[in-house]
Amino acid sequence: MEFCDECGSMMKTDDGTWVCGSCGYEKGRDESRSYTVTEGQETTEIIESTTEESGLPTTEVVCPKCGHNRANWYMQQIRSADESETRFLICTECEHKWREDDH
Q: Which end of the chain, C or N, has fewer beta carbons within 10 A?
């Protein structure tokens, strides 16, 4: 595994050269080191789900984008552990995502 000298992102190998997917920086491979190269994930292996299939709980709340009155929701800790979780909502109609803080 190689990391970009410019931005720190993980790099991918392309015909013997390391290429950063974020900033495009390239560098040659060090032939004195051994590498294990894995194939990328096939498109057919990627599973996409919609909010209808998500299994998330649903609540009555007005979407700020489309005005629909139902949304799926989940809680996530995004601040320090001594502060409460943030509730994220996803509109069941337009899939707009927003959050509600408790302050």
A: C
Residue closest to 76 by CA, chosen among 67, 85, 66: 85
What is the reported pTM?
0.48
Q: Which letter, b or e, does each residue of 33-56 get, where b requires 16 or more Cβ atoms within 10 Å of its Cβ?
A: eeeeeeeeeeeeeeeeeebeeeeb
Domain topology for 51-100: N-terminal domain of TfIIb (2.20.25)
pLDDT digits (tens, 9 = 90+) for 63-92: 999 999 999 999 888 777 787 888 999 999
**Domain chopping of the chain, boundaries:** 1-33, 51-100
